[in-house]
Amino acid sequence: MKLRPLVLVVGAALSVTLVAGCGGSSSGGASSSAPVAAAPSKAASMVAGEAVAAIKKATSGRIAVTQTGSASSSSGASVPTTTSVEGQFDDSNYQLANSYAGGASLNVLIVDQKGYVKGNVTYWTGVGLPNDDATAISQKWAQGNSTRPEAFAEYSPSKVRDQLVSDLNATTFTSSDSITVDNKAAYRLQSATGTQLVIDAETMLPSAMKSQNKTYDMSQWNAVSAKVAPPTSQVTTG
Q1: Considering the chain, what is the average pLDDT of its residues?
Q2: Does 174 or 32 have the greater pLDDT score?
Q3: Residue 220 and residue 48: Cα distance in Å, rounded?
Q4: Residue-wise burial string across 56-83, b where 16 or more C-beta atoms lie within 10 A, e elsewhere
Q5: In sequence order, which residues have a C-beta less than 8 Å from that of residue 201 and are 6 or more positions away?
């Protein structure tokens, strides 16, 4: 899944493409000296359906996506190799973090209806800033008209969660196995095309999914700490 590019202007043109893809790796499970009761046997479709229902009820969470292979957006903007979003699913408070091929990185913070962005030197020079300016701004959170929360609405936690639900509904899982992950009972679902999904048997919330070119890592369901605004001394406006 690919979200369309978002262009920001914070003293320079920023071309930001966030990707909320489908995928995520699963392991066979962690070993434990104490036996763990196996999850009850369920059909793959039932497990997937219960996972979707649990996701829809969650109030917060963290979803990280890693994409393999080369990719670019429809506008030619670079697609992050890794993108993560964590925060409240009412989109009131969250953080995005992106890493790009070549070492560039960008963070977006939304707190109390205010938006902030922070990129490293590689990112800022990549969008056209001179090295000295890029070095200076990389040490600050940038804030301006184009960093308002509505500018990031398409990439908010609720949008990423909704896309995850859509991806799960579009995948036909053909097998369901009971496994152990971190000393907890879990389900591992697999599709005919090789997509794998790991779901905690107690909460029915997913922890990982993997497809041919993307991995999904999911955690902190209903437990993401509230983000706080950076100190004024660490913010630059423009």
Answers
A1: 82
A2: 174
A3: 19
A4: eebebbbbbbbbeeebebeeebbbbbbb
A5: 39, 40, 178, 184, 185, 186, 187
Pairing between β-strand 141-143 and β-strand 235-237 as defined by DSSP bridges: parallel
Q: Report the C-alpha gap between 71 and 81 in whole angstroms.
A: 9
More confident residue, 213 or 87: 87
Q: Which two tokens stand for residue 12?
A: 């320079």
pTM: 0.78
| DSSP label at residue 222 | T
Q: Which helix (H) or strand (E) holds 136?
A: helix 131-137
Residue 85 contacts residue 98 (beta carbons within 8 Å): no
Helices vs. strands in the chain: H and E counts, helices first:
4, 14
Which amino acid is located at 6 in the chain?
A: L
Place of tokens 């700490």: 225
Tell whether the torsion through CA atoms of 83, 163, 213 and 178 is positive or negative: positive
- In this predicted structure, what is the pLDDT of residue 163? 85
Residue 41: half-sphere exposure toward Cβ, Cα within 13 Å: 1
Instruction: For residue 9, name the pLDDT band (cuts at 50, 70, 90).
Output: very low
Q: How far apart, in whole angstroms, are the C-alpha atoms of residue 206 and residue 187?
A: 9
